[in-house]
Amino acid sequence: QDRDSRNGRPGAGTPPSPRQGGRRSLELQPRSTTALILEHRPANLPAKSAEEAQKHRQQYEEMVVQARKREVKEAERRRRQLEERCRLEDSIAAVQTWTQDVLPNWSSVRTSRRVRELWWQGVPPSVRGRVWSLAVGNELNITPELFHICLARAKERGRGSTALAPGTEGKGAADAGPSDRESSLELIKLDISRTFPHLCIFQQGGPYHDVLHSVLGAYTCYRPDVGYVQGMSFIAAVLILNLDTADAFIAFSNLLNRPCQMAFYRVEYCLV
């Protein structure tokens, strides 16, 4: 000890410097709030009571539960991000396949096994309208100009029509005579409000209300022998969500012109 004192170094009996004592106390301190709760109090302080120790134990368990919930929530968030990234990558690849391989060669590949597989996987929204138009076709050779002519006629009849005649509410075109099928224009107003009501986009004031009314009204004037039949609005609504108004009318008219669909809407069940 004398030698250490002469050499200027602290010996065993020399008290540590404040800096050394502070460093040592930092090493002994708990490194988290959780550890602090579970630590006993220093010897120079009163010990915890049993109630306080139990309270700290409960707080610790609650903290552990909350931490586990956060970990589960974070893992779920990362899983959803990974799935969304995979879906996005698959969608980009599918769009490239449709735009580069299928659509330019539609006539030769539309019945191939590869295209059927792509159909079952789902057509990407960005190309869905073009694919549907090609798949339905236009055997009737309907033009956008014809659509606007039929639409103008429907609007003219709509301005000149009055309220529904007694006894006609809820009836379709099949209940009307051949010369009175265009009167089913009034039935469209009743049916539009019942078309996908949970979406709130086809009802009065919605962004697609007038568009749906235009397509159905134009079809009623295009095919007065068929008119409007309840349920047509759902088919037209799905087409409107993926096609322009004129293209939706063209696809709608050609789709309903198929023998099975036409027999169904003309209530000719023997042909169905």
TrEMBL record:
GO molecular function: GTPase activator activity; small GTPase binding
All copies of domain Rab-GAP TBC, residue ranges: 122-272
InterPro entries assigned: Rab-GAP-TBC_dom, Rab-GAP_TBC_sf, Rab_GAP_TBC_domain
UniProtKB keywords: Coiled coil
Residues covered by region (Disordered): 1-46, 161-180
Keyword Transcription: no
Gene3D superfamilies in alphabetical order: putative rabgap domain of human tbc1 domain family member 14 like domains, Ypt/Rab-GAP domain of gyp1p, domain 1
Positions in coiled-coil regions: 50-92
Protein name in the entry: TBC1 domain family member 14
Organism: Tetraodon nigroviridis (Spotted green pufferfish)
Lineage of the organism: Eukaryota, Metazoa, Chordata, Craniata, Vertebrata
